[in-house]
Amino acid sequence: MTDKLRIVVGSDDAGHQYKEALKQDLLDSALVAEVTDVGVDADGHTAYPKVAIAAAEMVARGEADRALLVCGTGL
Fold first, then answer.
1. Do 7 and 58 touch, CB atoms closer than 8 A?
2. Confidence category of residue 42, pLDDT binned at 50, 70, 90
3. Count of CB atoms situated within 10 Å of the CB of 1
4. Active-site residue among 5, 71, 72, 74?
5. Is 37 left (phi over 0), alpha (psi -120 to 50) or beta?
6. DSSP 3-state assignment of 73?
């Protein structure tokens, strides 16, 4: 049996709603141990690069196994 995944999720303002749906699916999965959300929240306006860097740094430090980033503009 494989270890369960630690996943970090993040999005820009436009991708927030889709990120929330994906986060719930991940939380419901038997393959996922934990999901960490690095932003943005419903009222947040964080620049997308800051969210992406935070997620990438967690993976690089070994705090997460994978990152899932959603950008509403498609970039």
1. no
2. confident
3. 3
4. 71
5. beta
6. coil
Structure tokens at 65: 């196994």
Query: d(Cα 8, Cα 36) in Å, to the nearest integer?
Result: 5
Per the annotation, the verdict on 51 as an active-site residue is no
Q: In what helix (H) or strand (E) does residue 56 lie, and over which residues does it extend?
A: helix 48-60
Q: How far is CA 28 from CA 15, 21, 75, in A?
A: 20, 11, 28
Quick one: tokens of 70?
């959603």
d(CA 45, CA 43): 7
48 is written with which tokens? 């997308």
Could you tell me the pTM of the whole model?
Answer: 0.89
Tens of pLDDT along 9-30? Answer: 999 888 899 999 999 999 999 9
Tokens describing residue 8 = 């970090």
Q: Whole-angstrom Cα distance, residue 16 to residue 55?
A: 15
